[in-house]
Amino acid sequence: MIKIKMLETKRKQKRFHFLNIHTLNVFSTTADLRRISTSNIRIFGLALFLLGCQDRDVHVYRVPKEQPFLPLTSTHDVLKESNIRWVPPEHWIEQPLVGLRQGSFRVQGTSGYEGDVSIIGLKGDAGGVLANVNLWRQQLHLSPIAKSNLPAIISGINVGGEESVMVDLTSEKNIIKETHQGRIMASIIPQSDMTWFIKIAGETKLVEKEKSTYLSFLKTISFSEKTEPRIPQKEPTHIDGIQWTLPEMWEAQPVSGMRMASFTVQDIKKEVLDISVVSLPGSAGSTLANVNRWRGQIGLGPFDRDTLEKESKILDLPGKQIMMVDILNEDRQILAAILHHQGKTWFFKMTGHQTFVSPQNSTFIDFLKSLRFSDVP
Amino acid sequence: MYLKKILLRLSSLKIAITCLALSMVLIFWGTLAQVNLGIYAVQLQYFESFFVYWRPFGANWMIPIFPGGYLIGSVLLINLVTSLIWIVQWRWKKTGIILIHIGFIILLAGEFLTDFFAVESYMRLDEGETKNHSESSRKTELVIIDITDPAYDEVISIPESVLYRKQIIEHAKLPFLLKIKKFYPNSRLKMRLPAEKELPPASTQGIGKDLVVAQVPMTAKTDERNLPAVRIEISGNNQTQGTWLVSNQLDAPQRVTYQNRSYQIALRQVRYYKPYRMQLLDFTHDRYAGTDIPKNFSSRIHLSHPARNEDRDVLIYMNHPLRYEGETYYQASFDNDDTTSILQVVRNPSWLLPYISSGIIGIGMLFQFMIHLMVFLKRRI
Description:
- The structure holds 2 protein chains of 2 kinds.
- Chain A has 8 helices and 22 strands.
- By secondary structure, chain A is α+β, with helices and mostly antiparallel strands.
- Chain A has 2 domains: 77-223, 3-Layer(aba) Sandwich (Protein Transport Mog1p, Chain A); 238-373, Protein Transport Mog1p, Chain A (3-Layer(aba) Sandwich), CATH 3.40.1000.
- Helix content of chain A is 21%, strand content 37%.
- Chain B has 2 domains: 2-118 and 352-380, no CATH class; 132-272, no CATH class.
- Chain B has helices at 2-10, 13-37, 39-47, 69-87, 95-117, 160-165, 353-380; strands at 51-54, 63-67, 119-126, 130-146, 152-159, 168-169, 177-184, 187-191, 211-215, 229-236, 239-247, 254-258, 261-287, 294-305, 310-317, 322-324, 327-335, 340-347.
- In chain B, helix 2 runs antiparallel to helix 3 (39-47), helix 2 (13-37) runs antiparallel to helix 4 (69-87) and helix 4 packs antiparallel against helix 5.
- The chains are: A alpha+beta, B alpha+beta.
- At the A-B interface, strand 3, helix 3 and strand 16 of A face helix 3, helix 4, helix 5, strand 3 and strand 4 of B.
């Protein structure tokens, strides 16, 4: 399978060069480069401007052998992130992962030929069975087949509890060093959101010898429930000049969107209550507009200014005042507070089921009371 | 005498004023043209050319319609030099004027030198990766690499400009004849699917057998890049070995064996090798708390220069480039979820000239002011 490089967009490259200033000639007898000749500035003068462009010509230089850079990835790293598991046979030699491979092994044959085992997982159906079978046929210099002929060359197999497709192809011509035929055995394992390809390729006799090992290897494959990697979060207690004390039960969560901090509380029924801290520049709309937006979120109509004054309460903090509202509609409840600090408006909001938010009311107030400001001594 | 007459004419103040006025128009026009053409094309067509050309609609020829940056700059430079020689009086009282003229001459000459000698390239490093070269972002080269020797690789580099103008390439170090069958200045490659048998393969050998190549119009936009491809034929002893397609869109070089020697062929970005190595130890991308707004990018690099017995770590970050061996490494960009750092590498031997010229102009202006002040004060007394 070829990869065509995704070429990053680049910024402007400086100019074309009139002069050959850099006739590079590098030689290395050790692992390091030594420049034999460097700058060769030919002519400079006004007349040169009129001569026009002269590009550098063919040049030759020596460099130390380039070591291919393998990203710091190993099968172990990949397994940590995907849900596929396998137990490789002892004589298969693990290889560094390159390209799309999530597993890679080399199989040493007795005749000096090597077999290659690859495990690749691709999103979706990755082109479908026919396209992939024809791709492998092409690798074996075989002509492509039509969809109607596909059932004749594939068989069913169960891999890791998934109904999979197995295909066994042998080249007609001697394609390995023009002396031996090539063979590919591959299984295509569809999962809900991706397809796995497990393939052994090599010289015919070697693949035949490894066939039983390959089939045993397929039996070791299992798919575990995918678990999202949990990102360890530092407990934010100080953001943008505001400090607070985090209540014991509150758990810090990854921040996203406009949130400066995010917390959750989980009750014994595993119901989750969400607490957000958002900061916006200026007044971020009026207090009334924001309260009415929250009321709308739980299906309530807007307040007018007088009602807001009656329904809200002011908490006195050292050097600051914070306005707090308690909005309830049937079983949905929002506890929110608005604070103006250093030209920004801060919103602290707790949202969840009423039976759970109500007991957290005092905790939320304690949290607000714990706020300390850098501009207040 | 005749030449002196011309030069005297060129030293007139009217020409200097005309050049300055034209350069203002050119800068304004060039700035507007960037909207459609992008900065790179505007730089070439407006500022690094003798004339700005206009192509009549549908025509394949162009006519010059305005002086370009090189013409205006050259005339202004001659004007300044000749006026300094013949017009400006070399007297103590004119020291300020003389210094200002010298400063402007250095400034203009410095800009020309930068154009000719400055080389800008990029070094792209994944975390843990070591490199001893940077790469041009726009220019490509066809390389034939003899990999037979286990100790080193011998690289035969053929620049893109040679591929443009030559059909057959012969070189003492090349064991075979290289024919440029087709050069695509900008192309797109795609897989030749089994169902697309009627489409001709891009080449008879190598990866090109499974590819189809299509030519697309060249681009000069800042955020786009031409992706060239070349179909080459290798032949020796009047016998062809077949054709290969090479392109900078392909991931790896292709292998060719000829007369028991192994070669790799590839079309890649032009490389600038260094006598030292750089390894990216760590790239960090700090953001302002709770937002995706970048606060700082930094690359921790391990620098090894065996010839100078240097082995040390350096930190390159925003506004704090590394100046080393005549090159400046700037933190330019990043990629791959903050695991790849892209450094801009600038070699500009004349980077000091603008500073020197500004200093001279400043001193000249100060002199001029002081001379006038002294005359004024003398009159008062």
